[in-house]
Amino acid sequence: MVKSKSKTRVLITGVTGFVGSHMVEYLLKRGDSKIYGLKRWQDRMDNVEHLKNKFITVEGDITDSVSMRRLISKIQPDKIFHLAAQSFVPTSWNAPEDTLFTNIIGTVKIFEAVRDAGINPDIQIACSSEEYGMIYPKEVPIKEDNPLRPLSPYAVSKIACDYLGYQYYQSYGLRIIRTRAFNHEGPRRGEVFVTSNFAKQIAEIEKGINEPIIYVGNLNARRDWSDVRDIVHAYWLATEKGKSGEVYNISSGKSRTVKEMLDTLLSFSKVKINVCKDPLRMRPSDVEILEGDSSKFRKITGWKPKIPFKKTLKNTLDYWRSKV
């Protein structure tokens, strides 16, 4: 009798978040993983409510050494997708200390817990295109070796996590793969993020909750958007085919202005909506363009985005239509 292959033990930090919930869905579709999702005791479960009883929820805090060591020692994961973070750029200006502590110290404690457990799982750490910051026109599309010129405390925190991953690989041989994903969107995106915020405003206007005015910040910034469902597939491939210690851009390779994105969302609504600038939505410093070159990642994995941007936006708007 042939013994069946045991399932891969996967730990997802930040499982109740936007990307974490889609990571669970992706792994469930694969059907070859035993999924452990890390959440803080106070985290809401809205994003994963529809997945209840399909994965194992474990409570803990990435900034707490005791809970991390206990959990990782008990789970003995084969793969870790480190997605937990303070990820909203404007919040990092209002709470820089909290952002730096959560993102940097939390990452260190995970690495140390892995070392303490005496295991060496594949660890994907979700870094960010925000690390590139100030980009000059001649540098577009952005490659992994482009200078990092961060323009927010969040970006600084992600650079630290990024290089900690490199250092722990070099110093201790941990199998860490660093991914710099560019903007990714889709259903369940937090309402503070621009695409989701616009979609929610439109849904509320359609329901008669608000007057037909949508409030905006900088519409001239250009972003490289992908669908979150393509991104989580890329994260899995990073752990399967990526080289430990390396960093990989994950992007569509095409940038659009925030105005183009807004116009596409507005085209899905039959309600006439006016656009009004809100000074409170402007940032102290803004990254004018993020457009990534992901050829390095595509070459080793064969990955490419499959979901059209219009579908991503339509799905996001329909999500908010069902919520408001």
Key traits:
324 residues; alpha/beta; Rossmann fold; UDP-galactose 4-epimerase, domain 1; 7-stranded parallel beta sheet; two-stranded parallel ribbon; 13 strands; globular
Helix content: 40-55%
Instruction: Quickly count the helices.
Output: 10
> Helices and strands, in N-to-C order?
EHEEHEHHEHEEHEEEHEEHEHH
Cα gyration radius (Å): 20 Å
Q: Which stretches are poorly predicted, pLDDT < 50 over at least 5 residues?
A: none
In CATH terms, what is the fold-level topology of the largest domain?
A: Rossmann fold
- The averaged pLDDT comes out at 95
Structural class: alpha/beta
Which word captures the global form? globular
Largest sheet: 7 strands, parallel
In whole angstroms, how far apart are the ends? 54 Å
CATH-defined superfamily of the largest domain = NAD(P)-binding Rossmann-like Domain
CATH architecture of the largest domain, by name, is 3-Layer(aba) Sandwich
User: What is the level 1 CATH name of the largest domain?
Assistant: Alpha Beta
Descriptive report:
The protein is α/β, with parallel strands linked by helices and 324 residues long. The chain has two domains: 8-185 and 226-254 and 289-306, NAD(P)-binding Rossmann-like Domain (Rossmann fold); 194-221 and 256-287 and 316-323, UDP-galactose 4-epimerase, domain 1. Helices cover 40% and strands 17% of the residues. The chain is built from ten helices and 13 strands. Strands 3-2-1-4-5-6-11 form a seven-stranded parallel beta sheet, sandwiched between helices. α1 packs across α7 (228-241), α6 packs parallel to α8 and α6 (194-206) packs across α10.
